[in-house]
Specification:
The complex is a heterodimer of chains A (about 290) and B (about 325).
Chain A lengths: L1 H13 L9 H30 L4 H9 L1 H34 L5 H13 L2 H12 L6 H6 L8 H11 L2 H14 L2 H8 L4 H12 L1 H17 L2 H7 L9 H10 L3 H36 L1
Helix pairs in contact in A: 2-15, 3-15, 4-8, 4-9, 4-12, 4-14, 6-8, 6-13, 8-13, 9-12, 10-11, 12-15, 14-15
Chain B lengths: L1 H21 L2 E9 L3 H19 L2 E9 L1 H10 L5 E3 L3 H10 L13 H4 L2 E2 L2 E6 L19 E2 L7 H16 L5 H13 L1 E3 L4 H9 L6 E5 H11 L4 E4 L3 E3 L5 E3 L1 H7 L2 H9 L4 H9 L3 E2 L2 H6 L8 E3 L1 H5 L2 H9 L4 H7 L2
Parallel strand pairs in B: 1-2, 1-3, 6-7, 6-8, 10-13
Antiparallel strand pairs in B: 3-11, 4-12, 5-8, 5-9
Helix pairs in contact in B: 2-12, 3-4, 6-7, 7-16, 8-9
The chains are: A mainly alpha (about 290), B alpha/beta (about 325).
């Protein structure tokens, strides 16, 4: 069937026909397939989350959200995101600036390393931190003797979150900066601008929309991360559980409505993120039209 | 100016110190296994009240739950538990063997009854009406019966499941090591989903509707029925099962660092008090106290129980023979 559709399109192109003039049945079929897939795999689960969350009514819904452990999970998730995003913002800008605007030894290696969190499983990321910071690991005994905790405590959760969200901003900026080249910076330097001025007045404004887009993606992942955080959390209630971990606990305690209520909050955050992303994309498109 | 700053800093320090001395608020971390969530929620509230009355101090008990073996691993790796309340003695002993000065030798004699204040056993949870006619261990190996149990490598409950089945096979006519090995292997051939913890298995069976029979802790089976409706499930008690002794211990290394030895010890000792035993019985753990047990006799089916010491010569031997890498469980689970 897929082959049939493809050859249909191929014939359409050969005879110079516009896609909109494809046979009616093909249009209906393809759009129908797309919509069915969308409804089944995206819309239905989302709707399910909200109906399950509200199954026991609004008061149960809000009760689940103001519960002490839920509040602490929400706070911890926001804290982890509030640290991970700025850290990766600074790192992402620095790394992409280095990679896109400069040529140096080990540049390819750095590019590959930035992608590492994308290519390894989050569980492995968590385990690496356990190996390094556990009381059986390299630094664990020293940390313990000095009364400090990394894993099974908030710092470990922040570390894991930073790790898995590492590439988002840099990956967004590198292609953008590379496509822009270095001419504008060179012009600025020729006109007498210093390094910092060039960076702040030329490089940064050029990538501001890409940067914002990267921040949004980074934030979404930081709040939703499960695997890596689960490994380093220790699951202490009211202390080291993030929202995704709290959802798992509630589900395992047969509190299905409460689990879906907290899940719906995560879903709402994701929808909000998508909304902001759409607005940003729209603004970018407009800026490009005006620029051209 | 400098003198003023010094005085200010000093008085601030003093104020902080004295505030701490007056309203002592203590935090304990209890690292436990999966099915004890509801029990310790109740028990913690009871103990906090008791401790407040006795000493005037506020004590907050934090909980962490998961598969017993995995939880022991976390404590060894640095999860700073003041007390552990795990599914079996072997997992607690792992703290002594692998931990960095966590637990002293002879911990099992520190508290009464092998440091197991409550016991449990392994029963079957089946779908209402028992459509596959599962009444005893022998029915689990029938073709077409789908069995749900967690993984004995990570779950304490699953190890009790496994050993209970083994003990049953030994007691059958002609029952010897080889017959038991074949019997338990046949059961695991019928296992469809192997979760890491007891709670995961319960969710698989109850929520996702997979399998015909769940091998479960007695208390976990009752909880599932109470939470999700007696109209859907029923409990089948086999002819013989194992006396499961979940062990508790004060984690020496951690309480000494936290300065919480007294309150941690009191926390575990109170489990043996009539009130503590009653809370355990309410959550379907078999109390050690005979009076409390008599009071809740209706909750617990009369079943012949054998201990791990009688049949397997203790946990260390059972662990080495059955659950170590390349042990009997690995052999029978690979053959499928």
């Amino acid at each position: 069937m897929a082959g049939g559709t493809a050859s249909l399109y191929a014939r359409g192109r050969q005879t110079g026909r516009a896609a909109t003039r494809d046979p009616k049945w093909a249009q209906v079929l393809i759009i129908g397939l797309g919509l069915t897939f969308f409804a089944l795999f995206l819309l239905a689960p989302l709707a399910l989350v909200f109906t399950e969350a509200l199954r026991k009514g609004w008061s149960a819904y809000f009760g689940a959200l103001v519960d002490r452990d839920a509040q602490s999970a929400i706070r911890l998730t926001l804290l982890a995101a509030a640290i991970a995003v700025p850290v990766n913002l600074v790192f992402g800008i620095a790394a992409s600036w280095l990679i896109a605007k400069h040529r140096f030894r080990g540049r390819t290696l750095l590019t590959t390393l930035i992608d590492l969190p994308f290519s390894v499983s989050p569980v492995i990321a968590g385990l690496v931190y356990v190996l390094v910071f556990s009381s059986q690991g390299w630094f664990g005994p020293w940390l313990q003797d000095n009364g400090m905790k990394v894993i099974f405590a908030v710092p470990g959760i922040v570390l894991a979150t930073v790790f898995v969200t590492f590439p988002f901003i840099a990956r967004e900026l590198i292609p953008l900066m590379e496509s822009q080249g270095t001419e504008e910076e060179e012009a600025a330097v020729v006109l007498g601008a210093g390094g910092l001025t060039t960076f702040l007045r030329v490089t940064l404004p050029n990538v501001k929309w890409g940067l914002l887009y990267g921040v949004i993606l980074c934030n979404a992942r930081a709040m939703g991360e499960f695997g890596a955080v689960s490994v380093v959390s220790g699951h202490i209630r009211g202390l080291t559980n993030t929202m995704p971990l709290h959802v798992e606990i509630l589900y395992n305690e047969y509190q299905f409505s409460a689990a879906f209520a907290v899940a719906s909050l995560l879903a709402l955050l994701a929808l909000l993120t998508l909304l902001i992303k759409t607005v940003v994309e729209w603004r970018v498109a407009r800026a490009q039209r005006e620029g051209a | 100016m400098r003198k003023f700053l010094k005085t200010a800093a000093l008085s601030a320090l003093l104020a902080a110190a004295s505030a701490q001395a007056f309203a002592a608020s203590i935090t304990l971390l209890n690292v436990s296994y999966d099915p004890t969530r509801e029990f310790y929620q109740d028990y913690n509230a009871h103990f906090a009240r008791l401790w407040k009355d006795k000493t005037g101090d506020d004590v907050t008990i934090r909980q962490s739950h998961g598969g017993s073996g995995k939880q022991a691993r976390s404590v060894i790796e640095g999860l700073e538990a003041d007390v552990v309340t795990l599914a079996l003695a072997y997992d607690v002993d792992a703290l002594r063997i692998h931990g960095r000065n966590l637990l002293a030798e002879g911990w099992i004699g520190e508290l009464a009854d092998n440091s197991a204040p409550y016991t449990s056993t392994i029963v079957f949870l089946v779908r209402k009406g028992n459509p596959k006619g599962i009444n005893d261990w022998g029915d689990l190996v029938k073709p077409g019966v789908e069995v749900i149990t967690p993984n004995p490598k990570t779950s304490g409950g699953a190890r009790w499941n496994y050993l209970a089945a083994w003990g049953y096979a030994l007691r059958q006519p002609g029952g010897d090591e080889a017959a038991a090995k074949k019997f338990v292997g046949d059961i695991f051939r019928n296992v469809k989903v192997l979760d890491t913890g007891a709670r995961g298995s319960t969710t698989t069976f109850v929520e996702r509707g997979i399998g015909d029979v769940l091998l479960a802790w007695e208390n976990e089976a009752y909880l599932a029925i109470n939470e999700l409706g007696p109209e859907n499930f029923e409990i089948v008690t086999p002819s013989v099962s194992i006396l499961a002794e979940p062990s508790v211990a004060v984690v020496d290394g951690n309480v000494d660092r936290h300065g919480t030895r007294d309150v941690a010890t009191a926390y575990l000792t109170e489990l043996y008090s009539p009130e503590g035993q009653e809370i355990a019985a309410k959550h379907y753990y078999r109390p050690r106290n005979p009076e409390v047990l008599a009071k809740y006799a209706d909750s617990f089916a009369d079943v012949e129980l054998f201990t791990i010491d009688e049949v397997f010569g203790g946990w260390t031997r059972a662990q080495d023979e059955h659950f170590s890498d390349g042990g009997i469980f690995d052999q029978i689970y690979v053959i499928r």
